[in-house]
């Protein structure tokens, strides 16, 4: 593995960091106060990303995207992680699973998503189906050439902005070595389809402005041509295209931790108590040393997993390790940064309390820390027959 950045990778890092600092940072407080990103601001940022040539950088070139490899994409996500989630999502990374579009779906969904003309959201989680996705109750029944969808999805982020949803829903059962399990099919469902309702979701303390929604399907009828992939093979599509989303969470966690850490270091160097900078005291300086070590370890785990993906090597365990370590590292770094800032760290005049709040959700979404440890331990024990 080469630990140095290529000229192209350094350009990506410098360009995205500059964009984040100039175009996203100035709007963070506004989004925090409003609880949403104004529509005109969304359009303005999206157009600037398109002009920059970075929109859909995650989509392979063969489909019309930027074609960045996993390592370079992780570097890009790391830089975006420095900014508010509600703003960084506008940078435009359509769901990779859309690369599975076929026939008319390509021009109806994939290409408009790549051009920034349509926004997607992924709907999988349900009130009673979080980590145990196959326990979902939302179902679809075939009726002639159509499918009729019923049920509820929740915690669906970015659905309030989406033009269509990528919906995973039960369409039957299959026998497996571990008993009967539900077959899952992936559907493309347009906003405005009769029987499809997008409602305001729950109020979350993390990532204000990056809102979640509740999706209701009430006898929602859609043609079979709206199936993404094959009937009953929704998990195959997810595993093919969505595996790297946890790596994205890890990379963004590294970026958030680094920004928070930089603020803490500067504060420790400037803030004086008892006649000297507080960074002179071991109680603070040792915290900084541990935080720096923690961040670098998370970054190496993340880039190592991305490198394995680029080399087509098995990477499930590596991605799980990166996700669990980076998200838990972020929690430690934000908490210690707040401690270094003292009372001011809890005041909304500084972004520290926001980083601290935002960090909590990273250990839950895209696979909880417990699920990541399950993946890691399974990979260790299964080869031994346990």
Description:
The chain has 386 residues and is an alpha+beta fold. The protein has helices at residues 7-24, 28-34, 39-52, 70-80, 85-88, 104-114, 234-241, 245-270, 282-310, 316-341, 352-359, 369-381; strands at residues 120-123, 139-143, 146-157, 164-176, 179-190, 196-200, 212-223, 272-273, 276-277. The strands form three sheets. The chain has a four-stranded antiparallel β-sheet, with no helix packed on it. A three-stranded mixed β-sheet has the order 1-4-5. Strands 8-9 form a two-stranded antiparallel ribbon. The longest helix is centred in the C-terminal third of the chain and has 29 residues, at 282-310. The mean pLDDT is 94.
Task: State the main characteristics.
alpha+beta; 3-stranded mixed β-sheet; 386 residues
* Mean pLDDT metric: 94
> What about the largest sheet?
4 strands, antiparallel
Tally of DSSP β-strands: 9
Question: Helical amount among residues, as a percent range?
Answer: 40-55%
The low-pLDDT segments are none
Give the N-terminus to C-terminus distance in angstroms: 32 Å
Outline, from the CA principal axes? globular
- How much strand? 15-25%
**Order of H and E elements:** HHHHHHEEEEEEEHHEEHHHH
Discrete helix count? 12
Radius of gyration: 22 Å
Side by side, the strands of the main sheet go 2-3-7-6
Secondary-structure class: alpha+beta
